[in-house]
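User: Fold this one for me? It's PepSY domain-containing protein.
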Amino acid sequence: MRWIDRLHRWTGGLIGLLLALIGLTGALLVHRRAWILLPHTGDAPRQDSAHLAATVARVMADPKARPEQLIFAEPGFGLDRLAFKGGAGAYLDQAGGLVARWSSQWARPELWLFDLHRHLLAGDAGETLVGVAGLVGIGFVLTGLLLWWRTRRSFAFRLWPRRMSRPAILRHHRDLGIVMAPLLLLSFGTGTLLVFRPLTAIVFGPSAPAAIRAATAPPPAPPAPLAARLDWAAMVRVARARFPQAELRSVTLPRRGNGLITLRMRQPEEWLRGGRTILWFAADSGRLIAARDSRAAPGAARVFGLLFPLHAAEVGGLAYRLVMTLSGLTLGLFGTLTVWSFWFRRPRPRPLPAPRPDRR
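Assistant: Here's what I get for PepSY domain-containing protein.
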């Protein structure tokens, strides 16, 4: 047990601040729709087909000013969002009026905070590091359970250490950790699976990674240039006729030269705000290439679609957002206090006792 304790403490001392950063940014992002203080954020989202068709046609009309992606208003956030190259973007009200515009993600705290939380502002390499931190976090929870069991009779619940001494911090860490262990496992587990999808084979079965990829992979299509003029309204009408109960969530222009325009929709029973019901249209003609209904996806793909809503508290209303906020704040508290107590509050070595005089 001693080597487990030593591994737990040393690893926490080395990456505690990274875990604290991930936890605190996650706690902020859970409430991002509440602290985006812009006009019309409280407007009810419109999903009637005529309005959606007119919106897409208006936004995509000018080939020189088309965004890479149009994301529609949703419950709790009544603005449409445009995303351009290089992190530029804009918020529009649902009548088409400009509410805010930015030239890089640094102008919008909700954007760079998300990038910091998911990628550490370092792209794919940062995302991998976040995934590794999640795996280490799972290890922390499991080893912490083993270490707590030895001292379970002295359990005392405290939200804050009794005093800022190293023994008091360690006791607070141990006892609060056992209470928060289920929430921390939920946060670490969902986040890690979102980053390292091959790990879904361990949780959901050997066929899970392939099923998840197939559920969202675009159909094969020859590369095609994006036409200057397309009947965007017709694409919306086709999508709503195909899935009349689903919300239209986003329109995305072709990426990596695949020649496909992507429309994402959200079925009523889906938790994921962006939806996993997808239609692909040819970029040069606007004709429908393929459509995929999330309700017909394999079980592993449907379960995987629940991970992000659980991780980001997109379900359960305010009560669940507060629960996940508590998880993020606890991780932030543990990470900072662990590093502080490990590196700066280590006990001073006791002086050796003075030798006794020889009385012979």
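One thing worth pointing out: Residues 2-34+115-207+312-343 form one domain.
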